[in-house]
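Incident review: delayed structure delivery

Summary: a single-chain prediction request sat in the queue longer than the usual turnaround. Root cause was a stuck worker, restarted by the on-call engineer. No data loss occurred. The affected request and its eventual output are reproduced below so the record is complete for anyone auditing the incident later.

Affected input:
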Amino acid sequence: MYKTIFVLFMLGGRVLAQDAGKLHGRAIVVDSHNDILTACMEKHLSMDKDLRGKTQSDLARFKQGGVDLQFFSIWCDGNKADPFAWANREMDTLYAVAERNHDKLLIVKNPAQLQEAIRLKRVAAMFGVEGGHMIENDVHKLEQLYERGMRYLTLTWNNSNAWATSAMDETNKADSLGKTHKGLTDAGKQIIRRMNELGVMVDVSHVGEQTFRDALAVTTKPVIASHSNAYSLCPVFRNLKDDQIRAIGRNGGVIQLNFYSGFVDSSFKTKERAFVARHRTEIDSLTKTGMQYEYAVTTISDTYSSEVTAARPPMGMLLDHLDYIVQLAGVDHVGLGSDFDGINSSPQQLDDVTSYPLITKALLERGYSKRDVKKIMGGNFLRVLKANQP
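Output delivered after worker restart:
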């Protein structure tokens, strides 16, 4: 009898894996946030080379993971003297990759071009600009980035800008912000209106709670959180509180799960701080060469991968965030925004961009219907993308 049960169990697992594989192939898989462009610039690499062991992404691996639409993050920290020029350099990098690999990658600017890329079995690429500081307080620069393919703007990164305050600053500098402004200024509200007119999605990841409330009060289109998780499960300033999750649901928007271990597991940050302290000298030596701090930590993490691996949470903890968001806002309001190559640690099994089929299988195992899995893997985000079209 026990042998029969074991055989049935094994057969059931095989059938589920086959079903998951077929479903993953049929779904339009969207990842709304990947930092490979910055990683390549910082590490002097090229995305169309085999970067296994060096990065979490490369062109061949996007295809292996079944990615149909990848949003490439355009980012620099708030210390860059020329963030708009840096943004254009990063865009130039992807345009050069696309030119060399037109049979594999297409930069698309609207849903019709996206469908054509899918028909041709190519990875479709769009740009998301991470941080309002990169438009340098100039709406004309917003428009120029839109013309080049930007389809969302994260209103702030960790640093505030002249027209919007960040989650980090609203958390750590609340008293000083009260003496200037908190949330969106009138100029910030005008930027939101112009984004709505152009068809640039409003991204509320990284923004302060007052900026969040102001943005949802001004926008006439559904918003996104391109890479955020649930604060109640992991209480860090970058995650979304329950009222914010519900508000995005009412707005018709979508929350894209961030794979960074520190936003998944509340115990990870203690482990990470210990790791950084152990390797402070090596990290400092990289920042002295001009490397941005986040990528110095990532580079040292790659060097001591066994230390980082031991601290990674199980994949199930990430899916707990998904379940939590579904309970609060509904299954129509959640998706994937990995933050690969902008993070130094992700949950176990989710090693790189080839790992997405594991999520499809895990969602089926958790009891999600095939229809709902297709929504989570990309359908929800595509709905919001279409709703933002001018």
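Verification: The radius of gyration is 20 Å.
Action items: add queue-age alerting; document worker restart procedure.
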